[in-house]
Structures are given as structure tokens and as C-alpha cells.
Amino acid sequence: MTIITPILSSTVNASTLNSISGQQSHKVVQSDRVEQTSLTKEIEKLGTKTSGNGITTFEISDAALEKVINKTFGNKVSNTELARKHSAGVTKIKYYGNGNMNVYLSKDMLNRIRGMGYSSGYKIVVGLISAVAGIPTMGVASVLIMAASGSLVSAMLNQVNPFKAGRIYKIRNWSYTGWSYQ
Prior knowledge:
Layout: H1 6-11, H2 14-46, E1 48-52, E2 55-61, H3 62-73, H4 79-86, E3 90-97, E4 100-105, H5 107-116, H6 118-133, H7 140-157, E5 167-172, E6 175-181
Antiparallel strand pairs: 1-2, 2-3, 3-4, 4-5, 5-6
């Protein structure tokens, strides 16, 4: 099969196409980093971080986290509806240091993330863990957060039916190790 493209064949070669493709993927990665940094800052701003007995706890209400999700991903839900649906739920992370933590997610937030899909759920979990661990969303240390978050969200999305109860996801030494019911 022969494809004739006289205009492109005289002006564009494989090197040029690779260069353009590389520039486009760099722009996408840069855009994702900016979005992730913004998401993490919003989560930090709306949550509460406390420390005591060697444990750092970060807590954010489901209503506040829902506002961050809506702002970041463009899903519009009215404040009245938010209050009605998510008034009791709380997302909490207990960080024990050295990559050891428990991530507490309410039933409503689990179902919300499940409905959004892997990419959005992954960004939310990275933002939550970054907020409690105090690690920026870029750099070498963030790779550990990304790996743990990816495993956690994959485990979360393996649930076929809607969640009926909140869960505690356990991360030990920056590796996802399992979950239990709240």
C-alpha cells in the first residue's frame, strides 16, 4: 500500500514529528503537575492537620473534599445537595511517619471516587497523602506517594458493587498492604 502525501513528505521528517510529539507530551505532563499541585493546595487549605504522640492526622469533611473535586474536575453540585448528601462523612489520614499511614474514606466518598474513575481518584488520593505527609507533588519523594496511591485506587476500583461501608486503607513503608472496614 502506498500513501502519497507530497506536502508533508517534502517538509516533515520523523525527527520533526518526534520533536512535536515530545513537546505535546511535555505540555500534558506539565498541565497535570499544575493541576495536581493546585488540587493538593486546595485539599490542604480546607482540611485540618494535627500532630501528637508521633502521629500526624489530616482530616477533611466529605463536603469540603467534594468542593475541591467539583472545582478541579468541573462537576457542579449545589451546596444544598452537598450538605444533604455528605454532611456526616469525613476523610481522614493518620500518618505515622516513614511511609506508614491509614487512609480513612467514608462510604459516600468511596462511591464518589469509584464513579469518577481511576485518573481522578488517583489525583485525589495523591493530593490527600501529599497534604498529610508534607511532600510536594513533584520530585523524587512524590514517586513513592504516586506508587502507593495507584495501588490504593486500583484496590478501591476493584470493588464491583457500590460500597456499603467506609474503609481504612493501609499503607506501610509506602506500599499498599490492604484494607479493613471502619
